Amino acid sequence: MKLYTRTGDKGKTSLVGGRVDKDHIRVNAYGTIDELNSFIGQAMTQLQDERFTDIYQELEKIQHELFDGGSDLARVKIDPSNFKLKEDTVTYLEERIDDYIEEAPKLERFILPGGSPAAATIHIARTVARRAERTIVTLQREETINDNVLTYVNRLSDYLFAIARVINARLNVKDVEYERSALVFRRGKRKDKE
């Protein structure tokens, strides 16, 4: 089998159901998800410690789900029965986010991306997830997509923020607060004065 096909030498690529220009918004959307998946893979190489077994396993699951989401976005002819990314993947991320928020130190101000190398890589992945989300929103305005992909990527960026903080906490590395940040995050509801 040859890795190259020469079919894309004129600036076109094949999708499920047709061919489009390589800079088509649909290609940008799933291409950005592929970039996101690569940064997650890079972060996983920095998380091969028993303290991070849970996060490592979750990220591996997420890598498969990102392939599913990219596959769904690569379809020109839309048939919802063929969609791979389902709503339960979003619910799972929400459950994990809730758990990690409880584990991480209290957050009141914006933080700077960074800390440990693994957390810094996760922060990069988080920003790529946000870019993927913006690209998917643009695609959704122009064409029909699996809406679960947009919701998933939105929730994934929150998940990545949460685990970046937990990674730093487990390594005893403090998050660096943005020094001009006001108090923007508060746990629980504020009680009215009586």
From TrEMBL:
Pfam families, A to Z: Cob_adeno_trans
Residue span, Cobalamin adenosyltransferase-like domain: 3-166
Known catalytic reactions: 2 cob(II)yrinate a,c diamide + reduced [electron-transfer flavoprotein] + 2 ATP = 2 adenosylcob(III)yrinate a,c-diamide + 2 triphosphate + oxidized [electron-transfer flavoprotein] + 3 H(+); 2 cob(II)alamin + reduced [electron-transfer flavoprotein] + 2 ATP = 2 adenosylcob(III)alamin + 2 triphosphate + oxidized [electron-transfer flavoprotein] + 3 H(+)
Keywords for the protein's UniProt record, in alphabetical order: ATP-binding, Cobalamin biosynthesis, Nucleotide-binding, Transferase
GO molecular function, one term: ATP binding
EC number: 2.5.1.17
Record pathway: Cofactor biosynthesis; adenosylcobalamin biosynthesis; adenosylcobalamin from cob(II)yrinate a,c-diamide: step 2/7
Subunit structure as annotated in this protein's UniProt entry: Homotrimer.
Protein family (similarity comment): Belongs to the Cob(I)alamin adenosyltransferase family.
Name of the protein: Corrinoid adenosyltransferase
